[in-house]
Each structure stands twice: as C-alpha cells, then as structure tokens.
Amino acid sequence: MLYLASKSPRRRELLERLGVPFGVLDLDIPEQQGPNEPADDYVRRVAREKAGAGLMDVMTTPGAIVLGADTEVILDDQVFGKPADRADAERMLRLLSGRTHRVLTAITVLDAGREQSEVSESLVTFDALDDGVITWYLSTGEWQGKAGAYAIQGHGERLIRRLEGNYSGVMGLPMQLTAHLLLSFGMHP
User: Fold this and answer.
1) HEC profile of the chain
2) Tally of CB atoms within 10 A around 36
3) Which of 75, 92, 108, 156 could disulfide-pair with 51, CB 3.0 to 4.6 Å?
4) Which residue positions in the chain have pLDDT lower than 50?
5) What is the pLDDT of residue 116?
C-alpha cells in the first residue's frame, strides 16, 4: 500500500492522476533550513524526513511504501518557503517580480528495505509585477500555504512569463519522476 506523507491537496490531486491507490498521512514535519544548509540539500532533506516519519507511522503495515515530497522556490540561493503572512507574501512577490527563479521539488519513496530519491528543477520567470497586480493577487488569498507565495495552477499562472521545466513539479509533484519512482517499487501507475 502506498502512503503520501503530505498535507498538500495539490500533491493528492496529482498522485490521484497516476491511478495508484494510496492513503494520506497527516504529519507535522518542521520545514526549517539549517544554518549554511544549501537550498538543494534542504529540499532533499525535508522530502526524506517526511517519508521517514511517514514510514514510522505505517511500519506495521506489510508492504507499506511511503512517498514524501518538498517544493521550494529559490532566488539567489535564498529559499522562499510558505509566507508567514500577507506582508511576507508581498515581499516575496516583489522580489520575484521580473526575475527568473528556481523551483525544486524533491521526492523520496521508501519502504522498510530501500529508499530512492529524485529532484525536479524548473526555471520560472515572472512578469514585471506592478502594485495593482500584486494587490490583486494577494486579494485572491491563493498565496497562503504556497512556497514563494504563488500557485502556478491557479491565478498565479497570470504572473508567469516563462516556464522551463516541469509544470507538475512546480505544482508540487513532478508526474514523470513520481511514476518512475513508483515503478521501481513495483507500483504501476
């Protein structure tokens, strides 16, 4: 049985598209970048910690497989996680305005005997955002709980001039990499 170690409704939606039955584990894993921890290492670590904590919850379930994932927006080696509040979201959007940033999604799949990980990297270029666009986007509330204060699959798509990489990876779960990992664990999406 596959378990998704994530509270993200977007990840649930994407995983459902693969047609593999799964359960959802409601975990509370701290997402705090360590001092001097490179952004790439941080994203991988959080995905692994989510999967590991999930496996601990279902260890007694025979054949349990757990998928953990983490998505972060990175600009100038600075991680833009989920904004603390509206002012933080506005700060992030102003910094991203007119610039290209990286979106990393790390995935870890593990069971009692093995672990495999992959990372999806995409480059997202924002349009130059004026005050009106920023105010409008903040008013949608969509920024809440989203890395970098935007959702590519919603109104945030309006902010994006260019995407190089994986759309579903920016959403939070790169479909091709996820399918590949699940196949390696004997699951057939």
Assistant:
1) CEEEECCCHHHHHHHHHCCCCEEECCCCCCCCCCCCCCHHHHHHHHHHHHHHHHHHHHCCCCCCEEEEEEEEEEECCEEECCCCCHHHHHHHHHHHCCCEEEEEEEEEEECCCCEEEEEEEEEEEECCCCHHHHHHHHHHCCCCCCHHHCCCCCHHHHHEEEEECCHHHHHCCCHHHHHHHHHHCCCCC
2) 6
3) 108
4) none
5) 97
What span, in angstroms and rounded, lies between the C-alpha atoms of 149 and 163? 17
- Quote the number of domains for the chain: 1
Domain membership of residue 134 as a residue range = 2-184
Confirm whether pTM is higher than 0.90: yes
Distance (Å) of CA 135 to CA 58, 132, 146, 151: 44, 5, 17, 15
Catalytically active residues are: 70
CATH assignment at residue 82: 3.90.950.10
Q: Does residue 96 lie in a domain region?
A: yes
Q: Give the model confidence (pLDDT) of 105-133 as tens digits.
A: 999 999 999 999 999 999 999 999 999 99
Q: Tokens for 139, please give them.
A: 């008013």
The position carrying tokens 């002012």 is 87
